[in-house]
Each structure stands twice: as C-alpha cells, then as structure tokens.
Amino acid sequence: MSAFDDLKARDEQSICNTYGRYPLAIDRAQGCHVWDLDGKRYLDLVAGIAVCSLGHSRPELLEVITRQYAKLVHVSNLFYQREQSELAERLLATSHAGKVFFCNSGAEANEAAIKLARRFMRTVRGREAYEILTLSGSFHGRTLATVTATGQEKFRQYFEPLPGGFTTVPKGDLEAMRAAMGPQTAAVLVEVVQGEGGVRPLDGDYLRAVQALCRERDVLFMIDEVQTGMCRTGRFWAHQHHGLTPDVFTVAKPLAGGLPMGAMFATDEAARGLTPGTHATTFGGGALLCAVAAKVVDIMLDEDLAGRAEAMGAYARELFAGIAARNPGAIAEVRGLGLMLAVDLGRPAADVWRALLDRGFICNLTQETALRLVPPLVITREDLDAFAAALEDILRARP
Ligand SMILES: *Cc1c(COP(=O)(O)O)cnc(C)c1O
Questions:
Q1: Residues facing 99 on adjacent strands
Q2: Number of the ligand 1 atom closest to the C-alpha atom of 253
Q3: Of the residues 77, 99, 108, 119, which has the maximum number of CB atoms within 10 A of its CB?
Q4: Is 272 exposed, middle or buried (0-12, 13-18, 19+ CB in 10 A)?
C-alpha cells in the first residue's frame, strides 16, 4: 500500500465524509508550490481556496507567529488588546469603513453582517425591517443563516426548515431588485465577483444602481468580500473597482495568511446597530491572529500585491487569449478580475483538470466546465507560462 493509499484509508475511517477530496495528499508547501507525500512538486493555483495570498510558509509570518506566541496568544475580548487595535487601524486605512468586528471565518463575518442589519433597522431606524436580499448564484457560507442567504439551492437541500427573512433575487436584474425591496427589507448582500458561483463578475453599473436603490430606500448595502477582498482582484477591496461605498462588507479567506480569521467592516453609522453584549465571539480577534494579519496587510501594501494581482491577471488573460486563438473552440470564455480567474472550456473539464494535476498543476474545477485559478498573488510570469504551456498541450491532445 502506498503512503497515499494508507492515508486515504485512515481519512475515510475517521473523518466525516463531507468533502470530495482530490486524489492528492499535501506534505509541505513553500511559496507558490506544494509537495505530495512522494516529494512530487506542484504549482498551487488554488492557494488554499484564495487563502494563501502571500504564498505558503512566509518567513515574515513565521517570525511574527513565534514572537507573538511567546508574548500573548489569547485572553478573550474581555480585555483591550493592542494587537487588535493595531490591526483594525491598518485595515480601516484601506477603506471608507469606520469600524471592524473580528471573527473566525467568512460565514461568521456574514452572520455578523446579517445580525447588524436587523438590529440596526430596529434599534437605530425604529423600523420592523429584517429581510436580507441576496442574488442567484451567490455563496455566503455554510451556517444555517448564510446557507439560506446563499442563492444556490443545492447547498440548502434537506436542511429545512431554514431561517426566515431571506429572499434570493435574480442577479443583474435591477427591476427584480426594485420589486423585491419592501418595507420589510433591511439589507442587500452581494458579491462583486461570485466566486463559488463560477467566478462571475457582476456588472459595475448594476452594482452602483443597487447601491443607489439601497440609499433611496434606506436599506443597508452590504458586500461579501470574503474571497475578493485584500488585493485578490487588483484593488485592495474589489468594491473599489466600481467606486462603491458599502455600509457593511466582510472578509476572511486571505486575512491571516492561512490562519482562520474573519472580519466585518461597517461605516460608523451602520456600526451603531451593535452595542455591548449584542454580538460576540470567544476566539475572534485574538492577539496572535491580529499580529499575523497586521503583517499580512503590511506585506500586501509594501509589495503592492493589488497592483501585482492586476498585472499578473492581465498577463494570464493574454496567455489564455493566445491559446484560444491558436486552438479555436478549446476555450469558451475567460472571466474574472485580477488573480481570480476562470478558464471555461464550455464542456465538462474534469479530464483536463486531472491531466493538469498529473503534470503538477493544481487548479480547481467549478461548475463542471470551468478551471478556477486563485493562485498566491506572488505568482510569477514563469509560473503562469508553465501552466499555460501545459494547458495548451493538454487541450491540443484532447479528443
Ligand atoms: C468562502 C466564502 C464564504 C465562507 O467562508 P468560510 O470561511 O468558509 O465560512 C463566504 N462568502 C464567500 C464569498 C466565500 O467565498
């Protein structure tokens, strides 16, 4: 039995069967590469699902983790912690938001946003408004509330009864949004690029119109940047591409360089919705996580990773456009923003995904037909060249 087969058998014996895993076990990771149990190297174009934006095993983060672990890890939010304020100030300096709430995941950040919206309407506005409008094709997490907010039926099935007060509206349809909005509506929650929905950017004019409609109706405009946030799309926040100023937005995946952390941002006005004792988390904003995340922010700004994501995303698109031109019909569409890309083959792509894996390239198959690429933002041109060459080779050899 190979080391991989042995591990697979142990996994199946002991771990809840909730994941369709790739036929691969990762032993170690460095930069943009990971190694399997046999020492085979792979270029990692998934980066822990858009998490490891700085690449794997950054020495700067190791240094912070070691130093902060020795000093202070966790004492709870009963206390003031310098690391938390220092991280908050850094993050708030990147946006128009005035306040931040730290938590532990994307779903939790969205839960905080949903709770804030309902409480804001009742306690600040004095209105019985509770409904959250979300879009078809969206993804907002796996807790009962966020899975209900998620506009994809497959994630909700058999979990009924679901919490009330969520309505899915067809994306891109402003009239449908206008019609859905009533006196009961507290907030609209959208993504700038639908990640789990197949890397589908929403139109900037549409998003601005939804924001304007929210302002007109005094409904909170909230953006889920759990995946798009922190340089991934070519701006520090994806909503900055379109000049949006959401009342609330959330982030998680890239925040703490691979450690679990989420955050909800709110304008000073929207933040009035939460007061002492109304929302909390035991682990959220611990000193160790905050120190690491502060370093992540510093590196992102020092190395201009937003600019890099934009440049490398444009470079990758050029490569894919070349493949499409030389191989008519092989690629149906390339879509995305910055280094959040999908190469849609327009037909089932599992064989291409598998052939790439065999050649040492890890990407993520989404919606059956699309290869999703969310690599570390420090990926090089040479890495992208190698991936594009392998992809073209595989597409050429395809029946
Ligand atoms: C991943 C993701 C979530 C859920 O984040 P978790 O940390 O897995 O709870 C929510 N929204 C979006 C847009 C995501 O990509």
A1: 266
A2: 7
A3: 108
A4: middle
